[in-house]
Specification:
By secondary structure, this protein is α+β, with helices and mostly antiparallel strands. Helix 8 packs antiparallel against helix 9 and helix 12 packs antiparallel against helix 13.
Length: 381
């Protein structure tokens, strides 16, 4: 509804002129309202900017500018809300100190600083870096983890120092300071080594004997020194065997076999005993061994079968020393046989009576079956 008051109208202004002025004002007002309504319906930055540009003197310009500010703020926030740059949110706060997203922007800055500081702390992975993180972010969820990391680093540092010292006292002190730590098994092993294994090893080294080292390995098979002990056992046994072998003494070789029943040199040692026994008979007073009788039609290629008949009243022992060495022991009236490869042999025979002279001789076996009979002839002088 419009009210017109015609007051103080100059006489020379006609009524028609007043009507035209009013209509012009009325149309201008209607046009501004319509444009603003169009902008508000579109509700975009472009629509409001266009309205303000076209109707800068409209009564709706202030409202348009207010809405434009809100839309620009929303646009900026949508552009930066997923940003990882602190300066983007600081710029927003600077431009919109009373903005709708101030709390979110502040929270984003705090989160970015938190993530950055935590990344630095974990990268450096030091008690100092974690301590500084806790000081900056004492209420963060990572603060608890940082404290755990500090405790873990202190534990590792203390353990490193303990292993460096490597004494029973240092391990016991560590256990008191960090009871039930993840190093408990290592502590037990270290104390066992220092208090039990090491003294036992020193004792074994002092004895420096096969038995001493074997006892150590038997009690501490998993210890680091067990391998060393095994090597020394092998070395001592090797030396012991070389000494027994070089002695050319039956008693020394037999003693070696008795002390080392599982020696890898058993076969060689048993052959050596036979060889020495043959040597001793050859060196002593002995009768001449008669030649072996070859059994006709029994030619072979590589081995020889020798049949031995004991026609004495004593236990007979016949020894063959050569490529292979064998000893055959027979009771009176018994027969036995031995298989030998081709080659030259020294043969020595004796009975269990000191009054009967031994016999010895040499023979070449060339691939056949042989037979020998032993009997005793009594000669009177």
């Amino acid at each position: 509804m419009f009210y017109f008051i015609y007051q103080n109208i100059r006489p020379n202004v006609s009524f028609r002129t007043v009507i035209l002025i009013f209509l012009s004002f009325y149309c201008a007002s209607c046009n501004g309202t319509k444009k603003f309504q169009q902008a508000r319906t579109i509700d975009s930055i472009e629509a409001y900017e266009k309205f303000i540009q076209e109707k800068p003197k409209s009564t709706f310009v202030t409202e348009a500018n207010n809405r434009l500010s809100v839309l620009n703020e929303q646009k900026l926030w949508n552009e930066i809300k997923n940003s990882s740059k602190i300066q983007d949110f600081e710029s927003y706060i600077k431009n919109y100190p009373e903005g709708d997203f101030i709390s979110q922007a502040t929270a984003k800055i705090e989160q970015i600083e938190l993530d950055r500081d935590w990344s630095v702390a974990t990268t450096l992975n030091s008690t100092r870096s974690y301590t500084e993180f806790i000081q900056k972010h004492p209420l963060s969820t990572q603060a608890k983890t940082a404290k755990e990391k500090i405790d873990e680093l202190n534990l590792e540092k203390a353990w490193l120092e303990t292993t460096k010292n490597h004494t029973a006292q240092s391990y016991e002190a560590f256990r008191r300071m960090y009871p039930n730590s993840k190093f408990e098994d290592e502590i037990s092993k270290a104390l066992n080594e220092l208090n039990i294994v090491t003294p036992a090893w020193k004792k074994a080294e002092k004895l420096n004997s096969i038995k001493g080292y074997e006892d150590f390995v038997g009690k501490h098979p998993e210890s680091p020194q067990a391998k060393i002990a095994s090597k020394r056992i092998s070395s001592l046994k090797e030396k012991e065997w070389e000494n027994a072998k070089s002695s050319r003494s039956i008693s020394s070789v037999q003693k070696y076999l008795n002390q080392n029943p599982n020696t890898p040199y058993r076969e060689e040692a048993e052959k050596l005993i036979i060889d020495i026994e043959v040597d001793n008979i050859f060196k002593s007073d002995h009768g001449k061994m008669p030649p072996l009788e070859k059994v006709k039609g029994t030619e072979t290629i590589y081995r020889n079968e020798v049949t031995i008949n004991n026609n004495t009243d004593y236990t007979l022992t016949v020894r063959y020393s050569g490529k292979e060495s064998h000893k055959v022991v027979m009771k009176p009236g018994r027969a036995s046989s031995v298989s030998l490869p081709n080659g030259s042999y020294r043969i020595a025979a004796s009975v269990n009576s000191s009054s009967v002279r031994s016999f010895a001789g040499s023979v070449s076996l060339e691939g056949a079956n042989y037979e020998s009979t032993y009997y005793i002839i009594t000669e009177r002088y």
